[in-house]
Amino acid sequence: MSKKPEILSVTSVARSRLFHIEQVDLRFNNGNEVQFERLQSNTPGSVLIIPVDDDELILIREYAVGTERYELGFPKGAIDRGEGPQAAAARELREEIGMASTNIRLLRSIVVSPAYFNRTTSIMLAMDLHIDPLPGDEPEALEQVRWPLDRMWELLEHDDFIDGCNQLALYSLGHTLGLLPH
Fold this sequence. Notes:
Blueprint: E1 6-15, E2 19-27, E3 33-41, E4 46-53, E5 56-64, E6 69-73, E7 76-78, H1 85-96, E8 99-111, E9 120-131, E10 143-148, H2 164-177
Parallel strand pairs: 4-9
Antiparallel strand pairs: 1-2, 2-3, 4-5, 4-7, 5-6, 5-10, 8-9
């Protein structure tokens, strides 16, 4: 593997509540100089939680401004400063589906687009659930959708289950449980 490119400069382009956009000027080992833009997350990362209650997955349907429609997916949210993925997953479960878990574990960590973004998402599995709600920060109540675990691969056929992280989470769950798609 070649030596990493030299960073010539990093310039702030814009900031928002969630992200910081930077222009990065690089010089590659062959002398080529290029400019890239990257998103830096203003949070320590995020979690996506797969809640399994008996033989059902618990999903939520919420509005996604990027697609301008309601999407079906797993509970998710940002990791707060001073919080680890496990604590964030426990909090988000209570806020988004009103349940707590005594059995939360990491399935895998991913970066959705490492060429442009530094944010790590921890995909967590939550089992042994019980009712224990916390007030959430959502602008409207989230619709809860229970889905039979033995029909989990049918989710991939639904046009509102399109988020790549949710699909990867489903495959991660299938791999973990030894339930591979047909």
